[in-house]
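Hey team,

Filing this mostly as a record. A colleague (T.K.) asked me to run one chain through the structure pipeline before their review meeting, and I want the input and output archived in the tracker in case anyone asks later how it was produced. No errors, nothing strange. Just documentation.

Input sequence:
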Amino acid sequence: MIATSLRLALGTAVALGFARFGYGLVLPAMRDDLGWSLAEAGSLTTANGFGYLLGAVATAGAARRWGSTRMFRVGMVLCATSLAATAASGGYGVVMAARAASGFGGALVFITGGVIAARAAERAATALPIAVYFAGTGVGIAASGVLVPPLLAGSPDRWPLAWVALAAASALGTAVSWGAARTTDPAPDRPAEAGRAGLLELWRPAAAYLLFATGYIAYITFLSATLADRGAGAGEVAAVWAVLGIAVVAAPWLWRRAAATWPSSRMLGSLLAVIAGASCLALTGWGGLPVVFVSAAAYGAAFMAVPASVTALVRSVVPPAGWPRALGAFTVLFAAGQTAGPWAAGAVADRVGPGAPAAWTAALCALGALVAATDGTRRPGRPDRARPGPRCPRPHEPRG
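Output structure:
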C-alpha cells in the first residue's frame, strides 16, 4: 500500500509542485527578461487558476463517463505537455494559454487522484493514503527548488530551459505513477443527491476553504520574487524552496495525531492560523533569511494539509458514490479563489510594495480560521455527533 501511495503521490508533485507552484521560481526571471509588472505576472497564475476551475467543473462528469484512472492519466500527460509548451514562446498570450492548460490538467489529476487515494484509504481503513497523496506536492516543490534556481542564476533569459526541465521531470512522474492510478469506480447511486446532501452539511468548511484558496496562493506565487527583491541569491532561493517542500512532505506525520483526534473545525482552523502566522513572519522581514526559513517551514507544514483535511472530511460525510461530485465542488471553490487571488495580490503589490502578497495571505487565512472555528465538532474519519437511531429497550421495559 505504501509503495503504491508514494507512486500515486507523484500526481500532486506534478500537478501542483511543478505545474502550479514551479511558476513562482521562474517568475522573477520571466519578469526581468520580458518586462512584466507584478499584476501581469500574477495574471498568469490567474490563468492557471482559471484552467483549474474549468477542469474542476469538468472532472466529475468525465470521471463518471471514462473512469478516475483514465482521467488521472490524461491530466498527467496534459500537465507535462503544457509545461513543455510554456517554454516555446515569450509571447504573453502563448504563455497564458499554456498556463491555463496546465491548470486544467492539474484539476483532473488533483480530483481523480484524491478519489483514488480516498478509495485506497477506505480499503485499508486508514487515512494514510490521502495524507501521502497530498504530501507529494512537497516532493515537487523541493525538486523544483533544486532544478530551477541553478539554471537561472544570473541569466534570466534562460527561463525556457527551466520549463523544459520541469516538463521532463513531469514526464518521468507520469511514467512512474501510471500503474499506481488503477482503481475501480463504483456504480453511481444517485450521485447528485449523494454529493449534494453531504455538501449542505459542510458549508462553513467550504467558506473557509474558499478564503484559504484566495489567500494562500499569493504567498507561494510571489515568494521567489520577494526574495529576489531583498537581494537573495539563487542558492538561498533554492534552500528556501527545499525547506518549504520538505515541510510539506513531513506534514502528514506532524499532524497525524491531531488529524485523528481533533474536531475537524479545530484542525482546519489551526492549519489556517499557522499559514496566517507564517505569512506574517515573511511580511515583517525582521531577522533576515533565518526568519524566512521559519516562515517557509511553517507554511509548508500547513498549506497542503488543508486539502488533505477537507478530503478526509468529505470522505467521512459523503457516501462513496458522491465523492467525485463532492470533491469536485470543493475544488471548484478552491479554483475560483486561487483564480482571483494572485491577480488581486499582484495589483495591490504594484501599488503598495512587495510585502502585499504576504499580507494578503495572512489576512484571508486568518479570516478563514475564524470561519472554521464556528463549525461543529465533526472529526475527520468519523462523525462526532452520532446520527439518531432506534434505542434499545432496557431489560425491564416492554418491547413494542
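Quick notes for T.K.: Residues 208 and 368 are 4 Å apart (CA to CA). Confidence is low (pLDDT under 50) at residues 191-195, 379-400.
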